[in-house]
Amino acid sequence: MSLRKLLSFLLLTILLLTVSFADALKFLPKDYSMLVYVPDLPKAYDAFKALPIGQTLLADTGIGLESLVLGVLEQQLLSMKYTLSDFDLFTKEMLVTTDKEGNITVVLGPVKNTTKVRKVLESFLEQETLKKVKFVENYFVYSDVQVGGGKVPANLSSTLKGNLGVTYTNIVDKDISFEGYGYIRVENNALVLYQKIDAKTQAAKNALKTLQNTKPVDVLGDKNVGGDLLIFVNRQIPEALKKSTLDALLSVANITNVSISGVMYASADIGSAVSSLLSADSQSQTSNQSNQNNQNVSVSSYSVVFGSGFKMPEEVKKYVTIGSEKYGVLTTENGMESYLLIKNDRMITYTVAPNKYKPGDKTFFTANYDPKYFMGVFINFEPLINTMLGKKIKSSATFVAYVEGDSIIQKGTVK
After folding, report:
1. Are 398 and 194 in contact (CB under 8 A)?
2. Which of 19, 147, 187, 224 is the most buried (most CB within 10 A)?
3. Is the pTM of this model over 0.85?
4. 368, 415 in Cβ contact below 8 A?
């Protein structure tokens, strides 16, 4: 190869890498405040799958979740006369953003055939979700706001170097300002997320001092908390942060027109649901029946959201009295029910009838919880692994946020 051709090849390679890095980012909303960007989803997935936890959860020598998901997907694709290559939604980039109003944007792709991918999504997603989905230049775009026009963070490229993904936060609300970068990488046989968000103004620093000194709600003191999944915000957080985090989650859950204090917690028993699902599936196969019975298996969960002005969602058409309380029953398109109870300062939700709800063990939560954490997510994979493999293997995913000096530290680990 001549020197000229070599230089031309290198230049083309650099241009392609630059374009690849920038494609999904061109859909950044103008006023985003937080983002997560993964330029190569297959690379990130393979890195996770190579870890001990990845092998246990995904490989056929373990639980085999990869084969399980692919089997369901292939079955659906076969019924549509498609193949896996026709559904290439997760084979390139991923961008997730929120803004200070809690609006979420998700970008995936690009895909080869938008018509085929949309038809597959229509078989899995509800209509309300599909209304926010569009394809732009072969990219899947789910958003509450207009995309494009957002500025790419100055240090995004350098932060991404050597990492699987990058995070960025830039929250500005009146005289409060926060900014920081983070990364996603593999460390010590674990998938790790780390982000340091610095207070940029005195008002922001004062807000962090208030946050640090506020007494947290006693989450673990609630007798209904238990299981293998816990999500919590145990004290009021700065309004700007709340909008970009909790309000975004509430928007996805279609909880609107209420004043949320920022304090909430939810726990669930996923392992028991999987066990019930496997049992139902086994009985179905033994009796040569259809899988319709599996639809009756739901995750037992309990959540509390604090605030004011709560009203029953318009979708609630049925009410039941259990004990001395009146619950609204929310039924999804697939027949799953949730029981909602409105109090003066909170909304309580069960995904099974309250009189049948039994909280799971909270030992895992107690071992990982620290009052200094103002926000966290704990997932214990051990019950799931024990149910599926009959082995007691310690495995978990945790994410916590806490104040350190004039910064917010966010740490996540999957191991």
Report:
1. no
2. 147
3. no
4. no
